[in-house]
Amino acid sequence: MLKKFTLTFFIISFALIVQVTAQTEVSTEKQTAIQELVTLINGDNKAEEMVNAMSRQMDSIREAAVNSVLDERADLTAAEKETLRQSLISKQKESAKRFQEKLLQKLNYNQMINEIAAIVYDKHYTLEEIRELTVFYKTPTGQKTLKTMAPIMTDTMQLIQERLIPKIPVIIKELQDEEKQEIEREVNAKKPKTKKSASK
Question: What is the per-residue pLDDT for 62?
Fold first, then answer.
């Protein structure tokens, strides 16, 4: 389910990006300024590094989700759980890897980053603000900010995972209980009522 959701999310997101790109016009002057900023930010493949860091965290989240589900299964032996754990995690990683490889084969990564950046920065920043950002990222603090983008994202995802994963079994249990109660209500509502015998 998580794999299908992730795939669907990527496809929908990319389709929306392509649609917006086709409809958005950015002035040449602003596009040039954005290009300079993006080149500065994406030096040493920082954007790609951030994508890879996110991918690693997604692998970790999927693995933790598998562990949570299997740990709740009292009908499986320890050996069966371990076999399933290795199989599921291996399949998920292989599927994610194949998807990422095929996606990168179909896309010009640098061109995609530039197109997306033109849309996003044009939407949220004026030309003057983009130039100010460029100046900032050339300062020592700005350079440190660029270097710590990926580690900050990794740490953030890790902390989110640590707080989120323990709640997954609880949420699943609550949803299952709610679904059972709803089914019981529907069954009771549709169950034929027993007719009382007429009194003499």
Answer: 76
